[in-house]
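F.,

This is the one I mentioned.
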């Protein structure tokens, strides 16, 4: 993840990165922990906000993604990070990247599909160490 953040800096200098995540997904929570650690180590500010949950069935609500991105826009984030979160960055990648584009927030992704079919701006899919 450090290499992703450094790559983002080469594309567009930034100080604040935002992320919308599904708090019920283990992958998303592990990503968030690592993103917090790496952002802190690089002197960056991270603003992370979970999607709202349905109180009855404890499932994330997709229609809350736009208001989360609007909130991040008001916080003046420089990038929206789309990590390995199946709900936000895969299942609802189109909605997520569309709303970020409308809000004029560039999106960085760790998921190829978010670029190919979701219109994310930029991404890296493999750790630099594994590239030959």
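My design for it:
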């Amino acid at each position: 993840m450090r290499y992703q953040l450094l790559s983002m800096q080469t594309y567009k200098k930034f100080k604040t990165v935002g992320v919308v995540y599904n708090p019920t997904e283990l992958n998303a929570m592990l990503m968030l922990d690592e993103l917090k650690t790496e952002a802190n180590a690089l002197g960056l500010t991270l603003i992370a906000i979970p999607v709202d949950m349905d109180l009855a069935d404890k499932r994330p609500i997709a229609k809350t993604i736009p208001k989360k991105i609007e909130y991040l826009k008001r916080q003046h984030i420089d990038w929206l990070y789309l990590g390995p979160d199946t709900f936000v960055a895969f299942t609802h990648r189109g909605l997520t990247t569309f709303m970020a584009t409308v809000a004029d927030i560039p999106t960085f992704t760790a998921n190829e599909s978010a670029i190919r079919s979701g219109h994310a701006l930029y991404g890296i899919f493999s750790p630099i160490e594994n590239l030959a």
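Strands lie at 16-21, 45-50, 79-82, 107-109, 122-123.

Talk soon.
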